[in-house]
Design brief:
Shape: globular
CATH topology of the largest domain: QueA-like
Number of domains: 2
Largest sheet: 9 strands, mixed
CATH architecture of the largest domain: 3-Layer(aba) Sandwich
Structural class: alpha/beta
CATH superfamily of the largest domain: QueA-like
Distance between the termini: 27 Å
Strand order of the largest sheet: 2-1-17-16-14-3-12-13-15
Helix content: 10-25%
Number of strands: 17
CATH class of the largest domain: Alpha Beta
Length: 343
């Protein structure tokens, strides 16, 4: 039994970072030896000192879309909100709607003085809605004009510069949340790593809002994990497999990159190209097939992300590191500081 309460920790509210740093690489970096639990306190600009020629960094190149739509119910004018989760067809999306009682199948909502119309087609078993959109032109352009960037529930105000909630290498649109471990890199640092012989490999996993969903059962192994779409190219799979063949290390930037390559690997650790949905839930007891290092942020108490990190580095090591991070006033969550687990 994996007790959810065993992954709780005390976090002062003021340590939840509300804004990103202007200089992406200037955040703090806690380096943790996953074998011994030994800690070092550095800055993210120093990450290259812990990587070696022949290593491969795996990065998630998904791009967050302005998925939050604020409008009105067509017949009453009441305020409504639709949050895009996943594209299910040409103009069909799985969404979260508010208020749910007013947006039942058949209801319509209007956005941008009629530039975009939404019709509720179906209520799904989990309460999400299938919504069909009508518009003139190109949907992505309409969405760029009308939509807002969805931010995590613990961010209390609107972001002044939405580009700071995108990685500098984001290119494949489809996420409702950012792969936040990658927010710490800038282009100059990525180039410096490549110049040092570290290979950069890009995969795609479209991050859903389920990443923020709390584990509500005491036996975490009974938690139903959300499903997300990923894609691994032939080039990426080959690069990762070659890294292991040469004796190099595969280091994931973020839990989403980890979940992608672990989903795409067979039992022998060979990564296969392809695209599909994954609902992989990694918690202590899991045997990692590909990943040998992890760059990530500080995660929420009792979250599936904290359990993934604990599966890699050990619950005691991780919670001890988090306790030290609180003592040292590290910044937590999406806009916070970073960890590097190695060894």
């Amino acid at each position: 039994m994996i007790r959810t309460s065993d992954y709780d920790f005390e976090l002062p509210q003021e340590l939840i970072a509300q804004d990103p740093l202007t200089d992406r690489t200037s955040c703090r970096l806690m380096v943790i030896d996953r074998r011994t639990g030994a800690l070092e306190h550095r800055h993210f600009r120093d990450i290259g000192e812990y990587l070696h020629a022949g290593d491969t960094l795996v990065l998630n190149d998904t791009k967050v879309i302005p998925a939050r739509l604020l409008g009105t119910k067509k017949d009453t004018g009441a305020a409504v909100e639709i949050l895009l989760l996943r594209r299910r067809g040409a103009d069909l999306w799985e969404t979260i709607v508010r208020p749910g009682k007013k947006l039942r199948p058949g209801a319509e909502a209007v956005f941008g003085d009629g530039l975009l119309t939404a019709r509720i087609e179906e209520t799904l078993p989990d309460g999400n809605r299938l919504v069909r959109f009508s518009y003139e032109g190109i949907f992505e352009e309409v969405l760029d004009r009308l939509g807002e960037m969805p931010l995590p529930p613990y961010i209390t105000h609107k972001l002044e510069d939405p580009s700071m909630y995108q990685t500098v290498y984001a290119r494949n649109e489809g996420s409702a949340a950012a792969p936040t471990a990658g927010l710490h890199f800038d282009q100059a640092q990525l180039k410096a790593l490549e110049d040092a012989g570290i290979r950069l490999v890009y995969v795609t996993l479209h991050v859903g809002l389920g990443t923020f969903r709390p584990v509500k059962v005491e036996d975490a192994s009974q938690h139903v994990m959300h499903s997300e779409w990923y894609q691994v190219s032939e080039e990426a799979a080959e690069a990762i497999n070659q890294t292991h063949a040469r004796g190099g290390r595969v280091i994931c930037v973020g839990t989403t990159s980890c979940r992608t390559i672990e989903s795409a690997a067979d039992e022998d650790g060979i990564v296969h190209a392809g695209s599909r949905d994954t609902s992989i839930f990694i918690y202590p007891g899991y045997r990692f097939k590909v990943m040998e290092g992890l760059i990530t942020n500080f995660h929420l108490p009792e979250s599936t992300l904290l359990m993934l990190v604990s599966a890699f580095a050990g619950r005691e090591n991780v919670l001890a590191a988090y306790e030290e991070a609180v003592r040292q006033r590290y910044r937590f969550f999406s806009f916070g500081d970073a960890c590097y687990f190695h060894g």
